[in-house]
């Protein structure tokens, strides 16, 4: 392998590295999106489970497993996501949302007035 061949090989490796770096970024972004989607789906499942159990009058015992749907939605909101039906699941990007806050008001109102 002479000098020119070596430099050519180096250039090839350099472009291969760029492709891998860019692909790596894409995969990382995809993972982030999937994690966000997973959080949202978990909250939705929990919410529907609660709605179902509310419809069943025979179930009076509180669930033993972890968070209620309200707690899940609260943690989702604290992690920076909308929980209102206007922009559910979208990132708030640091801003407050009147719809989300209204939603929480309604939730806590329901709790107080039974
Ligand atoms: Zn919102």
UniProtKB/TrEMBL annotation:
Keywords: Coiled coil, Cytoplasm, DNA replication, DNA replication inhibitor, Metal-binding, Zinc. The keyword Transcription regulation does not apply. Transmembrane segments: none annotated. GO terms for biological process: DNA replication; negative regulation of DNA replication. Residues 3-51 form a coiled coil. GO terms for molecular function: metal ion binding. This is Regulator of replication initiation timing. The lineage of its organism: Bacteria, Bacillati, Bacillota, Bacilli, Bacillales.
